[in-house]
Write a structure and sequence with these properties.
This protein is α/β, with parallel strands linked by helices. 45% of the residues lie in helices and 8% in strands. It has one domain: Uracil-DNA glycosylase-like domain (Uracil-DNA Glycosylase, subunit E), CATH 3.40.470.10.
């Protein structure tokens, strides 16, 4: 009969009741359990990570929708901060965006960014035209439990975000990299102490690396006059290296 073949929603509860009244055998119970499975649906993962990338634009598209840390159980405080690539010749690598960066979705927008630009003697337009800005983690991590400063991203969060940094490095191949803060220097260069590395040049995978301390007002490191002198020296090295990179590009 035509009506017997009509497709409609399955009344799982009613079907289970019928099977139960007939005293279902083991095979029937397995079929009943199988009917339940399609009703349990997992939320689809948003994070997309390809096995390889041929352009920074495609990498950034996936980075902007990354929710790997949320999918791993960490709180969502902001969306990923991804700076447009406009031919910047240097790579700046910080710790994590702050609350203002999370709101504006642009790196180094708060007081720390203004301090950083003052150290380097760059106005806002020059700064963003010179540096492609990235960080250990790409989302604002939230406030620290102590209430002083922002939370340091957990090691697992740092590992989840390392994928984006690794591919940025392969695609950009920067000549100059500036790690900002102790966490960035440890993750990128394996350095343990900010005091030991600020004011010095390092080689990293074909690039010159010149670390800076984090310009956050929550840090007491800059209260020492000797440390402030290291910052002046490091900023001079960065400006010198930028001039060298500029001369190379003009000679091509």
């Amino acid at each position: 009969m035509a009506g017997a073949c009509a497709q409609g929603p399955v009344d799982v509860a009613g079907l289970q009741a019928v099977l139960h009244r007939r005293g279902p055998r083991r095979g029937a119970r397995r079929r009943r359990d199988a009917l339940r499975e399609p009703l349990v649906r997992r939320r689809p993962l948003l994070t997309r990570r390809r096995s390889s990338y041929r352009s920074l634009a495609s990498l950034q598209r996936d980075n902007r929708v990354c929710r790997a840390c949320v999918e791993a159980g960490y709180p969502l405080e902001s969306l990923p901060i991804v700076q447009p690539y406009e031919g910047q010749r240097a790579y700046m690598f910080g710790q994590a965006p702050g609350v203002q960066e999370g709101e504006e979705r642009r790196p180094w927008r708060g007081r720390a960014g203004r301090t950083l630009r003052r150290w380097l003697d760059l106005d806002e337009d020059e700064f963003y035209a010179t540096f492609y800005c990235a960080s250990v983690t790409r989302c604002y991590p939230g406030k620290a439990a102590s209430g002083r400063g922002d939370r340091t991203p957990a090691p697992r969060e740092q590992e989840l975000c390392a994928f984006w940094r690794d591919w940025e490095w392969r695609l950009l191949r920067p000549r100059l990299v500036v790690p900002v803060g102790g966490l960035a220097a440890r993750r990128l260069l394996g350095l343990k102490s900010v005091s030991e590395c600020v004011g010095r040049r390092f080689e990293h995978d074909g690039a010159v690396a010149i670390p800076l301390p984090h310009p956050s007002g929550a840090s007491g490191w800059l209260n020492d006059p000797a440390n402030r002198a290291r910052v002046v020296e490091a900023a001079a090295l960065i400006r010198e290296e930028l001039r060298a990179v500029g001369r190379e590009e003009e000679g091509r």
